Amino acid sequence: MNFMKERTVTMNRECILEQAKQHDSFYLYEEAIIRKNTEQLKTDFPGVTFLYSVKCNPYPEVLRCVLNQGFGVDAASLAECVMGQKAGLGKDMVIFSAPGKTMADIRGGLGISTLVADSAAEVERIQEAAAEQGIVAEIGLRVNPDFTYTADTGVASKFGIDEQLIYDSMKSWKKLPNIRIVGLHAHLKSQELSAETLKGYYRNMFRLSVSMREAFGTLKFVNLGSGMGIPFCETDKPFDTTALGAETQRLMAEFQEKLPETRFYIETGRYAVGTAGTYVAKVVDKKVTHGKNFVLLSATLNGFARPSMVAMLEHFMGNGPIAAWEPIYTGDHSFQMIPLVETAERETVTVTGNLCTGTDLVLSDADMPKMEVGDTVVFPNAGSYAAVISPMQFASQPKPAQLFLRADGTVVNTDF
Question: Is-above-0.90 flag for pTM?
């Protein structure tokens, strides 16, 4: 039994089948797994402050569970800043680093978050808003560095301010009376499974931080971003947080004298909650047409869009390589479908959803255990970038329920 199947079927089968009596489709998020994942991070990265990327899954019970582990908020919108504020977090634990902030975002974020400017123009807009409010705001800059995960040269990006532009602009920015630049942020890639790759990136970030501190005059915080991924299929190896944590500790010790006042943040979304979610759908119909078997599931594209997105991209790209396009497309093996059936019979089927569109496709001509109407099917690793990227309003179909399995075995159904 593979890792995914064992986790989903063995641990959750009874709960899933019980909930399937009430719901044709639903997400089940598990508190025990979230706590296990977050505790692993805290153990392996002592002295680091973790920020939860709320955009990956803002479901209230999930958010509450993660923040209860001492995590802050990596906010991609003013609404996510407000979530952090309502949870009782201070400004230093709500980092607002989204690109393209409006003046309304900036004005609203100043009092409840630490703003991270994503462009040179945004620095000026923050100055304007801070002056209106009669405050001096301590802010960070999101840098587009002169390196990537795998190369010593930078690339054009919608995210961040070019490294050289920061150096060129600091003299004038220091003259702005209502802001102080005290922090640095970079985030270059998600769903990385190689600890060695992230070690190299972290080493570059620490060296860059020393240089930026010299330019800023002080550096109160550095947000290293994240990138830590999760296994989506049997061939994926779990990310080695122990190895990366050890290297992070070594770097913090090595650079302590040069970065004495610096607090280090790491963002996490997928690693914290991705494996804690399972999407569940039921077989609603079967048919044979022109000799081909079809199995129709409830709420796939409009409930759990990942399989349909994989199918669409592969259809348009043919057999050529497709680069990851996070979080919409992680890879061609970024989901598993596991029927919860007790049969040795197998059949070749095309699995689709029940929407009035041919793009609602899960698998084509797949060898699967034989399924019948009413059977339950599960998709593991649906705790992040799943419900939030699925077009649940399409065709006005019923939305999947979102359920939270507490550690004590109770199931919470929060309307969200």
Answer: yes
pLDDT in tens, 317-343: 666 555 566 676 666 666 889 999 999
Asked if residue 41 lies in contact with residue 268, where contact means CB atoms within 8 angstroms, the answer is yes
Do the beta carbons of residue 18 and residue 391 sit within 8 Å?
Answer: no
Measured on CA atoms in the order 149, 384, 34, 332, is the torsion positive or negative?
A: negative
For 385, phi then psi, to 5°, come to 45, 50
Q: What is the pLDDT of residues 110-131, one digit of tens each?
A: 999 999 999 999 999 999 999 9
Distance (Å, rounded) from C-alpha 277 to C-alpha 383? Answer: 4
- Which tens digits make up the pLDDT trace of 171-212? 999 999 999 999 999 988 889 999 999 999 999 999 999 999
Which of 15, 65, 233, 356 is the catalytic position?
356
Active site residue 15: no
Count of CB atoms within 10 A of residue 217's CB? 11
**Chain-centroid distance, C-alpha 333:** 18
From first CA to last CA, the distance across the chain in angstroms is 34
Distance of alpha carbon 197 from alpha carbon 98, whole angstroms: 25
- What DSSP string describes 196-245? HHHHHHHHHHHHHHHHHHHHHS---EEE----B----STTPPPP-HHHHH
DSSP letter (8 states) at residue 99 = S
pLDDT in tens, 6-39: 444 335 888 999 999 999 999 999 999 999 999 9
One-character DSSP codes across 249-299 = HHHHHHTTTTSTT-EEEEEESHHHHGGGEEEEEEEEEEEEETTEEEEEESS
| Percent over 70 (pLDDT), the chain | 93
